[in-house]
Amino acid sequence: MLFKYPVLLIVCTAAVLFVLSQCKGDRYQPINEDLIAVKSEIAKTNASFEKQINELIILVSKNADEKTLQKKFEELRITYKKMEWAVEYFLPNSARFINGPALPEIEMDEHTELEPEGLQVLEELFYPYTAENKNETIRYLKKLINKSNTIKTNFQAISISKDQVFDAVRQEIFRVSSLGISGFDTPVSGTFLKEMPYSIEAALLTLQQISTDKSKDKALKKFSTAVNSAIAVLKKNTDRNTFDYVHFIPDHLNKISSLLLEFKKQEGIPDIEVTSALHKNATDFFSKNAFNPNAFTPGKEFVFSDEKAGLGKLLFNDKILSNNNSRSCSTCHIPEKAFTDGRAKSMSLENTELQRNAPSLNYAGFQHGQFWDMRKEDLEGQSSDVISNKEEMHGDLNVILGKINQSSKYLPEFRKIYKSQKAEVWQLQNVLASYIRSLAKFNSNFDDYMRGNRSAMTESQQKGFNLFVGKAQCALCHFIPLFNGTVPPNFKKTEQEVLGTAVNGDNKTFDQDPGRGKFHETVESLQHSFKTPTLRNISKTAPYMHNGGYRTLKEVMNFYNKGGGKNFGFKVENQTLSDAPLHLNDKEIDHIIDFMNSLDDK
Questions:
Q1: Which structural domain, as residue segments, surrounds residue 398?
Q2: Which of 97, 224, 283, 423 is deepest in the core (most CB within 10 A)?
Q3: 395 lies in some domain
Q4: Is there a contact between 582 and 561 (Cβ–Cβ < 8 Å)?
Q5: 276-288 pLDDT per residue, tens
Q6: Contact (Cβ atoms closer than 8 angstroms) between residue 21 and residue 492
Q7: What is the CATH number of the domain that holds 328?
Q8: Distances (CA, A) of 346 to 190, 245, 359, 364
Q9: What is the pTM for the complete model shown?
Protein backbone atom coordinates (compact mmCIF):
# COMPACT_ATOMS: atom_id res chain seq x y z
CA MET A 1 0.00 0.00 0.00
CA LEU A 2 3.01 2.26 -0.45
CA PHE A 3 2.34 5.05 -2.90
CA LYS A 4 5.28 6.96 -4.26
CA TYR A 5 2.68 9.20 -5.87
CA PRO A 6 -0.04 8.84 -3.29
CA VAL A 7 -3.07 10.35 -4.94
CA LEU A 8 -4.95 11.60 -7.95
CA LEU A 9 -6.57 14.86 -6.94
CA ILE A 10 -9.43 16.53 -8.76
CA VAL A 11 -9.89 20.24 -9.38
CA CYS A 12 -13.33 21.17 -8.08
CA THR A 13 -15.87 23.28 -9.88
CA ALA A 14 -17.72 24.98 -7.06
CA ALA A 15 -16.75 27.71 -4.62
CA VAL A 16 -15.65 26.57 -1.17
CA LEU A 17 -16.43 28.08 2.18
CA PHE A 18 -16.39 31.72 3.31
CA VAL A 19 -12.97 33.27 2.58
CA LEU A 20 -11.64 30.53 0.37
CA SER A 21 -12.06 28.93 -2.98
CA GLN A 22 -10.66 25.65 -4.21
CA CYS A 23 -11.43 26.27 -7.83
CA LYS A 24 -10.14 28.69 -10.41
CA GLY A 25 -8.34 30.88 -7.86
CA ASP A 26 -8.29 32.18 -4.31
CA ARG A 27 -11.17 34.58 -3.63
CA TYR A 28 -12.00 36.41 -0.45
CA GLN A 29 -14.77 38.23 1.32
CA PRO A 30 -13.97 41.13 3.63
CA ILE A 31 -13.83 40.10 7.28
CA ASN A 32 -14.09 42.21 10.39
CA GLU A 33 -10.95 41.78 12.48
CA ASP A 34 -7.32 42.09 11.44
CA LEU A 35 -4.82 40.14 13.56
CA ILE A 36 -1.60 42.02 12.89
CA ALA A 37 0.73 39.76 14.88
CA VAL A 38 -0.51 36.62 13.15
CA LYS A 39 -0.20 38.14 9.68
CA SER A 40 3.23 39.50 10.52
CA GLU A 41 4.45 36.03 11.49
CA ILE A 42 3.08 34.56 8.24
CA ALA A 43 4.84 37.28 6.25
CA LYS A 44 8.10 36.68 8.11
CA THR A 45 7.95 32.94 7.51
CA ASN A 46 7.08 33.39 3.85
CA ALA A 47 10.02 35.78 3.40
CA SER A 48 12.31 33.06 4.77
CA PHE A 49 10.62 30.57 2.44
CA GLU A 50 11.36 32.71 -0.62
CA LYS A 51 14.93 33.35 0.51
CA GLN A 52 15.57 29.63 0.91
CA ILE A 53 14.16 28.90 -2.54
CA ASN A 54 16.58 31.40 -4.07
CA GLU A 55 19.45 29.86 -2.10
CA LEU A 56 18.50 26.45 -3.47
CA ILE A 57 18.47 27.82 -7.01
CA ILE A 58 22.01 29.09 -6.51
CA LEU A 59 23.16 25.77 -5.09
CA VAL A 60 21.65 23.84 -8.00
CA SER A 61 23.17 26.29 -10.49
CA LYS A 62 26.61 25.78 -8.91
CA ASN A 63 26.25 22.00 -9.06
CA ALA A 64 26.21 21.42 -5.31
CA ASP A 65 26.36 17.80 -4.17
CA GLU A 66 23.23 15.75 -3.47
CA LYS A 67 23.52 15.77 0.33
CA THR A 68 23.86 19.56 0.42
CA LEU A 69 20.79 19.98 -1.80
CA GLN A 70 18.73 17.52 0.21
CA LYS A 71 19.66 19.23 3.50
CA LYS A 72 18.67 22.63 2.10
CA PHE A 73 15.44 21.21 0.69
CA GLU A 74 14.52 19.70 4.06
CA GLU A 75 15.03 23.13 5.64
CA LEU A 76 12.76 24.63 2.99
CA ARG A 77 10.01 22.12 3.75
CA ILE A 78 10.28 22.84 7.46
CA THR A 79 9.83 26.54 6.78
CA TYR A 80 6.68 25.79 4.81
CA LYS A 81 5.37 23.67 7.70
CA LYS A 82 5.56 26.74 9.94
CA MET A 83 2.93 28.50 7.82
CA GLU A 84 1.09 25.50 6.39
CA TRP A 85 -1.85 26.04 8.77
CA ALA A 86 -2.52 29.45 7.20
CA VAL A 87 -1.77 28.69 3.55
CA GLU A 88 -3.90 25.53 3.49
CA TYR A 89 -6.84 27.33 5.08
CA PHE A 90 -6.84 30.75 3.44
CA LEU A 91 -5.19 29.89 0.09
CA PRO A 92 -6.22 26.30 -0.67
CA ASN A 93 -5.75 26.59 -4.42
CA SER A 94 -2.22 27.90 -3.97
CA ALA A 95 -1.51 25.25 -1.33
CA ARG A 96 -2.34 22.51 -3.83
CA PHE A 97 0.47 23.76 -6.10
CA ILE A 98 2.91 24.40 -3.26
CA ASN A 99 2.74 21.05 -1.48
CA GLY A 100 0.30 18.89 -3.42
CA PRO A 101 1.00 15.40 -4.78
CA ALA A 102 3.28 15.02 -7.77
CA LEU A 103 0.40 14.03 -10.02
CA PRO A 104 -1.58 15.94 -12.62
CA GLU A 105 -4.45 18.09 -11.41
CA ILE A 106 -7.47 17.01 -13.41
CA GLU A 107 -10.18 19.27 -14.80
CA MET A 108 -12.99 16.72 -14.97
CA ASP A 109 -15.46 18.87 -16.90
CA GLU A 110 -12.89 19.68 -19.55
CA HIS A 111 -11.12 16.28 -19.54
CA THR A 112 -7.73 18.00 -19.23
CA GLU A 113 -4.72 17.72 -16.96
CA LEU A 114 -2.63 20.43 -15.30
CA GLU A 115 1.07 19.89 -14.70
CA PRO A 116 1.92 19.14 -11.06
CA GLU A 117 4.39 21.44 -9.33
CA GLY A 118 5.63 22.31 -5.87
CA LEU A 119 7.53 20.65 -3.06
CA GLN A 120 6.52 17.07 -3.83
CA VAL A 121 7.63 17.38 -7.45
CA LEU A 122 10.93 18.81 -6.21
CA GLU A 123 11.25 15.99 -3.69
CA GLU A 124 11.31 13.50 -6.56
CA LEU A 125 14.03 15.55 -8.25
CA PHE A 126 16.20 15.75 -5.13
CA TYR A 127 15.77 12.10 -3.99
CA PRO A 128 17.93 11.11 -5.77
CA TYR A 129 19.39 14.17 -7.49
CA THR A 130 21.11 13.95 -10.86
CA ALA A 131 22.73 16.78 -12.80
CA GLU A 132 20.58 15.81 -15.80
CA ASN A 133 17.60 17.34 -13.96
CA LYS A 134 19.36 20.62 -13.20
CA ASN A 135 17.31 22.84 -15.52
CA GLU A 136 14.07 21.12 -14.61
CA THR A 137 14.78 21.55 -10.91
CA ILE A 138 15.48 25.27 -11.35
CA ARG A 139 12.26 25.65 -13.38
CA TYR A 140 10.16 24.18 -10.58
CA LEU A 141 11.96 26.23 -7.94
CA LYS A 142 11.14 29.40 -9.87
CA LYS A 143 7.50 28.35 -10.08
CA LEU A 144 7.61 27.95 -6.30
CA ILE A 145 8.83 31.55 -5.98
CA ASN A 146 5.70 32.61 -7.84
CA LYS A 147 3.59 30.80 -5.28
CA SER A 148 5.50 32.49 -2.45
CA ASN A 149 4.70 35.83 -4.06
CA THR A 150 1.03 34.80 -4.14
CA ILE A 151 1.16 34.17 -0.39
CA LYS A 152 2.74 37.58 0.20
CA THR A 153 0.25 39.46 -1.98
CA ASN A 154 -2.85 37.80 -0.60
CA PHE A 155 -1.96 38.06 3.07
CA GLN A 156 -1.23 41.74 2.58
CA ALA A 157 -4.70 42.23 1.12
CA ILE A 158 -6.96 40.11 3.29
CA SER A 159 -8.24 40.46 6.81
CA ILE A 160 -8.40 37.47 9.11
CA SER A 161 -10.50 36.99 12.23
CA LYS A 162 -9.89 35.16 15.46
CA ASP A 163 -12.51 32.49 14.78
CA GLN A 164 -10.95 31.76 11.39
CA VAL A 165 -7.44 31.60 12.81
CA PHE A 166 -8.61 29.13 15.47
CA ASP A 167 -10.44 27.04 12.85
CA ALA A 168 -7.31 26.99 10.68
CA VAL A 169 -5.13 25.87 13.60
CA ARG A 170 -7.62 23.13 14.48
CA GLN A 171 -7.59 21.90 10.89
CA GLU A 172 -3.80 21.82 10.98
CA ILE A 173 -3.77 19.60 14.06
CA PHE A 174 -6.18 17.26 12.31
CA ARG A 175 -3.99 17.43 9.19
CA VAL A 176 -0.99 16.38 11.26
CA SER A 177 -3.05 13.59 12.87
CA SER A 178 -3.89 12.06 9.50
CA LEU A 179 -1.81 13.19 6.54
CA GLY A 180 1.21 14.38 8.49
CA ILE A 181 1.73 11.27 10.58
CA SER A 182 1.39 9.02 7.52
CA GLY A 183 4.08 10.86 5.53
CA PHE A 184 1.52 11.81 2.91
CA ASP A 185 3.52 14.76 1.54
CA THR A 186 7.00 13.21 1.86
CA PRO A 187 6.43 9.85 0.13
CA VAL A 188 9.99 9.66 -1.23
CA SER A 189 12.20 11.21 1.46
CA GLY A 190 10.11 10.10 4.45
CA THR A 191 11.16 13.14 6.50
CA PHE A 192 7.71 13.79 7.96
CA LEU A 193 8.57 12.91 11.56
CA LYS A 194 11.26 15.60 11.46
CA GLU A 195 8.73 18.12 10.12
CA MET A 196 5.81 17.43 12.45
CA PRO A 197 7.26 19.32 15.46
CA TYR A 198 7.30 22.53 13.42
CA SER A 199 3.65 22.19 12.39
CA ILE A 200 2.60 21.59 15.99
CA GLU A 201 4.82 24.36 17.32
CA ALA A 202 3.36 26.80 14.78
CA ALA A 203 -0.11 25.97 16.12
CA LEU A 204 1.05 26.81 19.65
CA LEU A 205 2.66 30.08 18.56
CA THR A 206 -0.51 31.12 16.75
CA LEU A 207 -2.73 30.40 19.74
CA GLN A 208 -0.37 32.40 21.91
CA GLN A 209 -0.79 35.34 19.54
CA ILE A 210 -4.60 35.30 19.67
CA SER A 211 -4.97 34.37 23.33
CA THR A 212 -6.02 36.60 26.23
CA ASP A 213 -5.84 36.30 30.00
CA LYS A 214 -8.96 34.11 29.79
CA SER A 215 -6.89 31.09 28.77
CA LYS A 216 -3.31 32.09 29.56
CA ASP A 217 -2.91 30.10 32.78
CA LYS A 218 -5.55 27.52 31.90
CA ALA A 219 -6.13 25.85 28.51
CA LEU A 220 -3.23 27.60 26.77
CA LYS A 221 -0.81 26.46 29.44
CA LYS A 222 -2.04 22.87 29.20
CA PHE A 223 -1.93 23.06 25.40
CA SER A 224 1.68 24.27 25.55
CA THR A 225 2.64 21.38 27.86
CA ALA A 226 0.96 18.85 25.55
CA VAL A 227 2.68 20.28 22.48
CA ASN A 228 6.11 20.23 24.12
CA SER A 229 5.52 16.66 25.27
CA ALA A 230 4.63 15.57 21.72
CA ILE A 231 7.65 17.35 20.26
CA ALA A 232 9.95 15.62 22.75
CA VAL A 233 8.66 12.22 21.61
CA LEU A 234 9.02 13.13 17.94
CA LYS A 235 12.62 14.24 18.40
CA LYS A 236 13.57 10.93 20.02
CA ASN A 237 12.72 8.84 16.97
CA THR A 238 12.36 10.02 13.36
CA ASP A 239 12.48 6.56 11.77
CA ARG A 240 9.14 5.93 10.07
CA ASN A 241 9.57 2.15 10.33
CA THR A 242 10.04 2.01 14.11
CA PHE A 243 8.02 5.00 15.37
CA ASP A 244 5.27 4.12 17.87
CA TYR A 245 2.19 5.53 16.10
CA VAL A 246 -0.32 3.45 18.03
CA HIS A 247 0.54 5.22 21.27
CA PHE A 248 1.52 8.63 19.91
CA ILE A 249 -1.88 9.34 18.34
CA PRO A 250 -4.07 8.78 21.43
CA ASP A 251 -1.48 9.91 23.99
CA HIS A 252 -0.43 13.09 22.22
CA LEU A 253 -2.29 14.15 19.08
CA ASN A 254 -5.77 13.38 20.43
CA LYS A 255 -4.89 15.21 23.64
CA ILE A 256 -3.70 18.25 21.71
CA SER A 257 -6.88 18.43 19.61
CA SER A 258 -9.02 18.00 22.73
CA LEU A 259 -7.26 20.89 24.49
CA LEU A 260 -8.02 23.08 21.49
CA LEU A 261 -11.71 22.95 22.39
CA GLU A 262 -10.92 23.98 25.96
CA PHE A 263 -9.01 26.97 24.61
CA LYS A 264 -11.89 27.86 22.32
CA LYS A 265 -14.39 27.72 25.16
CA GLN A 266 -12.30 29.81 27.54
CA GLU A 267 -11.60 32.42 24.87
CA GLY A 268 -15.27 32.53 23.82
CA ILE A 269 -14.45 31.91 20.17
CA PRO A 270 -17.59 31.31 18.07
CA ASP A 271 -18.02 28.52 15.54
CA ILE A 272 -17.45 29.19 11.87
CA GLU A 273 -20.95 28.98 10.41
CA VAL A 274 -20.36 26.35 7.75
CA THR A 275 -21.22 22.68 7.43
CA SER A 276 -18.07 20.64 7.88
CA ALA A 277 -17.33 16.92 7.94
CA LEU A 278 -16.14 17.07 11.54
CA HIS A 279 -18.56 18.42 14.09
CA LYS A 280 -17.31 21.58 15.80
CA ASN A 281 -17.48 19.86 19.19
CA ALA A 282 -15.48 16.79 18.14
CA THR A 283 -12.52 16.54 20.49
CA ASP A 284 -10.60 14.35 18.04
CA PHE A 285 -11.02 12.12 14.99
CA PHE A 286 -12.15 9.22 17.14
CA SER A 287 -14.68 10.83 19.46
CA LYS A 288 -18.18 9.40 19.21
CA ASN A 289 -20.33 11.11 16.56
CA ALA A 290 -17.32 13.10 15.36
CA PHE A 291 -18.46 13.02 11.73
CA ASN A 292 -21.34 14.97 10.26
CA PRO A 293 -23.10 13.02 7.46
CA ASN A 294 -24.73 16.23 6.21
CA ALA A 295 -21.36 17.40 4.88
CA PHE A 296 -21.72 14.67 2.23
CA THR A 297 -25.31 15.35 1.10
CA PRO A 298 -26.25 17.19 -2.14
CA GLY A 299 -28.11 20.01 -0.34
CA LYS A 300 -30.05 21.19 2.70
CA GLU A 301 -33.24 19.33 1.80
CA PHE A 302 -31.27 16.06 1.89
CA VAL A 303 -30.12 16.38 5.53
CA PHE A 304 -29.93 13.18 7.51
CA SER A 305 -32.55 12.17 10.07
CA ASP A 306 -33.32 8.95 11.92
CA GLU A 307 -36.85 9.02 10.45
CA LYS A 308 -35.48 9.09 6.91
CA ALA A 309 -33.04 6.29 7.71
CA GLY A 310 -35.79 4.16 9.21
CA LEU A 311 -37.99 4.53 6.16
CA GLY A 312 -34.99 3.92 3.92
CA LYS A 313 -34.25 0.67 5.72
CA LEU A 314 -37.74 -0.63 5.00
CA LEU A 315 -37.44 0.19 1.32
CA PHE A 316 -33.86 -1.14 1.12
CA ASN A 317 -35.19 -4.55 2.11
CA ASP A 318 -38.35 -4.39 -0.02
CA LYS A 319 -38.49 -6.01 -3.48
CA ILE A 320 -40.87 -3.26 -4.56
CA LEU A 321 -37.85 -1.39 -5.94
CA SER A 322 -37.09 -3.96 -8.64
CA ASN A 323 -38.80 -5.13 -11.79
CA ASN A 324 -41.50 -7.70 -11.05
CA ASN A 325 -40.63 -7.53 -7.33
CA SER A 326 -37.75 -9.94 -7.94
CA ARG A 327 -34.99 -8.58 -5.68
CA SER A 328 -34.21 -5.93 -3.09
CA CYS A 329 -31.10 -3.87 -2.38
CA SER A 330 -30.24 -6.34 0.38
CA THR A 331 -29.96 -9.14 -2.18
CA CYS A 332 -26.49 -7.90 -3.10
CA HIS A 333 -25.73 -5.95 0.09
CA ILE A 334 -26.05 -8.34 3.01
CA PRO A 335 -25.70 -6.83 6.51
CA GLU A 336 -23.71 -9.79 7.89
CA LYS A 337 -21.16 -9.33 5.10
CA ALA A 338 -20.74 -5.58 5.76
CA PHE A 339 -23.31 -5.00 3.01
CA THR A 340 -21.46 -6.93 0.31
CA ASP A 341 -22.61 -10.28 -1.10
CA GLY A 342 -19.55 -12.50 -0.66
CA ARG A 343 -19.22 -13.12 -4.41
CA ALA A 344 -16.34 -12.17 -6.65
CA LYS A 345 -18.89 -10.41 -8.84
CA SER A 346 -22.55 -9.88 -8.19
CA MET A 347 -25.15 -11.71 -10.25
CA SER A 348 -27.49 -10.04 -12.71
CA LEU A 349 -31.23 -10.59 -12.93
CA GLU A 350 -30.46 -13.15 -15.63
CA ASN A 351 -28.09 -14.97 -13.24
CA THR A 352 -24.93 -13.97 -15.08
CA GLU A 353 -21.89 -12.26 -13.54
CA LEU A 354 -21.85 -8.47 -13.49
CA GLN A 355 -18.68 -6.55 -14.24
CA ARG A 356 -17.51 -5.84 -10.70
CA ASN A 357 -17.52 -6.82 -7.05
CA ALA A 358 -20.29 -5.42 -4.83
CA PRO A 359 -18.66 -2.75 -2.61
CA SER A 360 -19.42 -2.42 1.09
CA LEU A 361 -22.03 0.21 1.97
CA ASN A 362 -21.03 0.62 5.63
CA TYR A 363 -19.05 3.84 5.23
CA ALA A 364 -20.09 4.77 1.69
CA GLY A 365 -21.74 7.89 3.10
CA PHE A 366 -18.29 9.41 3.68
CA GLN A 367 -17.17 9.39 0.07
CA HIS A 368 -17.50 11.84 -2.80
CA GLY A 369 -17.95 9.38 -5.62
CA GLN A 370 -20.00 6.20 -5.62
CA PHE A 371 -19.40 2.90 -7.41
CA TRP A 372 -15.87 1.69 -8.09
CA ASP A 373 -15.64 4.07 -11.04
CA MET A 374 -17.07 7.01 -9.06
CA ARG A 375 -19.61 7.75 -11.77
CA LYS A 376 -22.09 9.21 -9.27
CA GLU A 377 -21.11 11.94 -6.84
CA ASP A 378 -23.40 11.00 -3.96
CA LEU A 379 -25.58 8.25 -2.54
CA GLU A 380 -28.75 9.82 -3.91
CA GLY A 381 -27.46 9.38 -7.46
CA GLN A 382 -26.14 5.93 -6.66
CA SER A 383 -29.53 4.58 -5.56
CA SER A 384 -31.39 5.58 -8.70
CA ASP A 385 -28.58 4.27 -10.91
CA VAL A 386 -28.84 0.80 -9.34
CA ILE A 387 -32.63 0.71 -9.34
CA SER A 388 -32.90 1.62 -13.02
CA ASN A 389 -29.99 -0.55 -14.18
CA LYS A 390 -31.39 -3.29 -16.44
CA GLU A 391 -28.95 -5.91 -15.19
CA GLU A 392 -29.22 -5.13 -11.50
CA MET A 393 -32.84 -4.26 -10.57
CA HIS A 394 -34.43 -3.04 -13.81
CA GLY A 395 -36.84 -0.88 -11.89
CA ASP A 396 -38.79 2.10 -13.16
CA LEU A 397 -38.74 4.99 -10.72
CA ASN A 398 -42.11 6.30 -11.89
CA VAL A 399 -43.72 2.89 -11.52
CA ILE A 400 -42.17 2.48 -8.07
CA LEU A 401 -43.45 5.89 -6.99
CA GLY A 402 -46.88 4.92 -8.20
CA LYS A 403 -46.82 1.91 -5.87
CA ILE A 404 -45.47 3.95 -2.96
CA ASN A 405 -48.10 6.66 -3.40
CA GLN A 406 -50.83 4.02 -3.17
CA SER A 407 -49.24 2.29 -0.18
CA SER A 408 -50.78 2.66 3.27
CA LYS A 409 -47.40 1.55 4.64
CA TYR A 410 -45.14 4.05 2.89
CA LEU A 411 -47.12 7.13 1.81
CA PRO A 412 -47.97 8.34 5.36
CA GLU A 413 -44.28 8.15 6.26
CA PHE A 414 -43.22 10.21 3.23
CA ARG A 415 -45.91 12.78 4.04
CA LYS A 416 -44.77 12.98 7.63
CA ILE A 417 -41.10 13.46 6.76
CA TYR A 418 -41.31 15.68 3.69
CA LYS A 419 -44.61 17.50 4.32
CA SER A 420 -45.80 16.76 0.79
CA GLN A 421 -48.91 15.02 -0.52
CA LYS A 422 -47.04 12.53 -2.69
CA ALA A 423 -43.62 10.93 -2.62
CA GLU A 424 -41.19 12.24 -5.22
CA VAL A 425 -38.13 10.70 -6.86
CA TRP A 426 -35.62 12.77 -4.90
CA GLN A 427 -37.34 11.79 -1.67
CA LEU A 428 -37.08 8.10 -2.50
CA GLN A 429 -33.40 8.58 -3.30
CA ASN A 430 -32.90 10.52 -0.08
CA VAL A 431 -34.43 7.95 2.29
CA LEU A 432 -32.37 5.15 0.76
CA ALA A 433 -29.22 7.27 0.98
CA SER A 434 -30.06 8.20 4.58
CA TYR A 435 -30.26 4.56 5.54
CA ILE A 436 -26.84 3.90 4.04
CA ARG A 437 -25.46 6.93 5.90
CA SER A 438 -26.73 5.41 9.13
CA LEU A 439 -24.59 2.29 8.66
CA ALA A 440 -21.33 3.92 9.80
CA LYS A 441 -21.04 2.90 13.44
CA PHE A 442 -17.44 3.81 14.39
CA ASN A 443 -17.59 1.29 17.24
CA SER A 444 -14.72 -1.06 16.40
CA ASN A 445 -12.02 -2.21 18.80
CA PHE A 446 -9.70 0.23 17.09
CA ASP A 447 -12.07 3.10 17.86
CA ASP A 448 -12.29 1.97 21.49
CA TYR A 449 -8.52 1.88 21.70
CA MET A 450 -8.17 5.39 20.33
CA ARG A 451 -10.78 6.55 22.86
CA GLY A 452 -8.60 5.37 25.73
CA ASN A 453 -9.32 1.65 26.20
CA ARG A 454 -5.80 0.24 25.94
CA SER A 455 -7.04 -3.35 26.20
CA ALA A 456 -9.26 -3.02 23.11
CA MET A 457 -6.46 -4.03 20.71
CA THR A 458 -4.13 -6.99 21.07
CA GLU A 459 -0.36 -6.62 21.00
CA SER A 460 -0.36 -8.10 17.50
CA GLN A 461 -2.95 -5.55 16.33
CA GLN A 462 -0.95 -2.70 17.82
CA LYS A 463 2.13 -3.90 15.95
CA GLY A 464 0.01 -4.17 12.84
CA PHE A 465 -1.16 -0.56 13.13
CA ASN A 466 2.43 0.66 13.47
CA LEU A 467 3.32 -1.28 10.33
CA PHE A 468 0.17 -0.05 8.57
CA VAL A 469 1.16 3.57 9.11
CA GLY A 470 4.92 3.09 8.95
CA LYS A 471 6.76 0.47 6.92
CA ALA A 472 3.78 -0.65 4.80
CA GLN A 473 2.57 2.95 4.29
CA CYS A 474 -1.04 1.88 3.86
CA ALA A 475 -2.24 5.12 5.49
CA LEU A 476 -0.92 7.13 2.54
CA CYS A 477 -4.09 6.17 0.68
CA HIS A 478 -6.42 4.67 3.30
CA PHE A 479 -6.53 7.81 5.40
CA ILE A 480 -7.00 7.67 9.15
CA PRO A 481 -9.68 7.64 10.59
CA LEU A 482 -12.11 6.67 7.79
CA PHE A 483 -9.51 4.38 6.21
CA ASN A 484 -10.85 5.25 2.75
CA GLY A 485 -9.72 7.72 0.08
CA THR A 486 -11.62 10.77 1.37
CA VAL A 487 -8.88 13.28 2.11
CA PRO A 488 -8.66 14.76 5.61
CA PRO A 489 -8.88 17.17 7.30
CA ASN A 490 -11.53 18.84 5.13
CA PHE A 491 -12.88 15.63 3.55
CA LYS A 492 -13.84 17.55 0.41
CA LYS A 493 -12.58 15.05 -2.15
CA THR A 494 -12.29 11.30 -2.54
CA GLU A 495 -9.39 9.78 -4.44
CA GLN A 496 -9.00 7.09 -6.99
CA GLU A 497 -5.81 5.07 -7.56
CA VAL A 498 -4.18 3.06 -10.31
CA LEU A 499 -2.78 -0.13 -8.81
CA GLY A 500 -2.15 -2.31 -11.84
CA THR A 501 -4.62 -4.89 -10.52
CA ALA A 502 -4.59 -8.38 -12.00
CA VAL A 503 -7.67 -10.44 -12.82
CA ASN A 504 -6.98 -12.59 -9.74
CA GLY A 505 -4.51 -13.27 -6.97
CA ASP A 506 -2.20 -15.26 -9.26
CA ASN A 507 -1.14 -11.87 -10.69
CA LYS A 508 -0.48 -13.28 -14.15
CA THR A 509 -2.97 -11.33 -16.26
CA PHE A 510 -3.67 -7.60 -16.13
CA ASP A 511 -7.31 -6.57 -15.60
CA GLN A 512 -8.28 -4.39 -18.58
CA ASP A 513 -11.24 -2.69 -16.86
CA PRO A 514 -10.73 1.07 -17.55
CA GLY A 515 -12.47 2.05 -14.31
CA ARG A 516 -13.00 5.79 -14.09
CA GLY A 517 -11.12 6.14 -17.36
CA LYS A 518 -14.22 4.92 -19.21
CA PHE A 519 -15.79 8.34 -18.66
CA HIS A 520 -12.58 10.30 -19.38
CA GLU A 521 -10.99 8.51 -22.31
CA THR A 522 -8.57 11.36 -23.13
CA VAL A 523 -7.20 11.60 -19.57
CA GLU A 524 -4.37 9.09 -19.39
CA SER A 525 -3.91 9.30 -15.62
CA LEU A 526 -7.49 8.08 -15.02
CA GLN A 527 -7.22 4.92 -17.08
CA HIS A 528 -7.66 1.80 -14.90
CA SER A 529 -8.27 3.98 -11.84
CA PHE A 530 -10.69 3.01 -9.09
CA LYS A 531 -12.00 4.57 -5.91
CA THR A 532 -10.06 3.87 -2.72
CA PRO A 533 -12.58 1.98 -0.54
CA THR A 534 -12.71 1.90 3.24
CA LEU A 535 -10.89 -0.84 5.14
CA ARG A 536 -13.41 -0.74 7.97
CA ASN A 537 -15.10 -4.16 8.26
CA ILE A 538 -12.64 -5.46 5.68
CA SER A 539 -12.56 -8.95 7.22
CA LYS A 540 -16.23 -9.38 6.27
CA THR A 541 -16.02 -8.26 2.64
CA ALA A 542 -13.97 -10.93 0.84
CA PRO A 543 -13.22 -11.37 -2.00
CA TYR A 544 -11.31 -8.15 -2.70
CA MET A 545 -10.50 -5.48 -5.27
CA HIS A 546 -12.93 -4.05 -7.82
CA ASN A 547 -13.07 -7.37 -9.64
CA GLY A 548 -13.26 -9.64 -6.60
CA GLY A 549 -10.23 -11.48 -7.94
CA TYR A 550 -8.31 -11.60 -4.69
CA ARG A 551 -9.77 -14.22 -2.37
CA THR A 552 -7.97 -13.32 0.85
CA LEU A 553 -6.30 -10.37 2.54
CA LYS A 554 -3.08 -12.36 2.31
CA GLU A 555 -3.34 -12.27 -1.49
CA VAL A 556 -4.04 -8.54 -1.38
CA MET A 557 -1.05 -7.90 0.88
CA ASN A 558 1.18 -9.99 -1.39
CA PHE A 559 0.16 -7.79 -4.33
CA TYR A 560 1.05 -4.60 -2.46
CA ASN A 561 4.19 -6.08 -0.94
CA LYS A 562 5.61 -6.81 -4.37
CA GLY A 563 4.90 -3.28 -5.66
CA GLY A 564 1.68 -3.68 -7.61
CA GLY A 565 1.09 -4.44 -11.27
CA LYS A 566 4.39 -3.08 -12.58
CA ASN A 567 6.39 -5.61 -10.62
CA PHE A 568 4.26 -8.41 -11.99
CA GLY A 569 5.25 -7.37 -15.49
CA PHE A 570 2.17 -5.33 -16.43
CA LYS A 571 2.57 -2.15 -18.48
CA VAL A 572 0.93 0.42 -16.23
CA GLU A 573 2.65 3.71 -17.00
CA ASN A 574 0.18 5.68 -14.92
CA GLN A 575 0.35 3.42 -11.85
CA THR A 576 0.01 5.53 -8.69
CA LEU A 577 1.10 2.69 -6.44
CA SER A 578 4.86 2.75 -5.99
CA ASP A 579 6.56 -0.18 -7.66
CA ALA A 580 9.10 -0.29 -4.82
CA PRO A 581 8.66 -3.55 -2.86
CA LEU A 582 7.70 -3.14 0.80
CA HIS A 583 9.89 -6.01 2.02
CA LEU A 584 7.31 -7.12 4.57
CA ASN A 585 7.87 -10.61 5.97
CA ASP A 586 5.07 -13.09 6.63
CA LYS A 587 4.87 -12.23 10.32
CA GLU A 588 4.56 -8.52 9.57
CA ILE A 589 1.84 -9.17 7.02
CA ASP A 590 -0.04 -11.24 9.59
CA HIS A 591 0.20 -8.34 12.08
CA ILE A 592 -1.24 -5.92 9.52
CA ILE A 593 -4.12 -8.25 8.70
CA ASP A 594 -4.71 -8.70 12.43
CA PHE A 595 -4.87 -4.93 12.81
CA MET A 596 -7.39 -4.67 9.98
CA ASN A 597 -9.56 -7.14 11.87
CA SER A 598 -9.72 -4.57 14.69
CA LEU A 599 -11.59 -2.27 12.28
CA ASP A 600 -14.69 -4.48 12.35
CA ASP A 601 -17.74 -2.79 13.83
CA LYS A 602 -19.36 -4.64 16.73
A1: 298-437
A2: 423
A3: yes
A4: yes
A5: 999 999 999 999 9
A6: no
A7: 1.10.760.10
A8: 40, 38, 10, 18
A9: 0.92
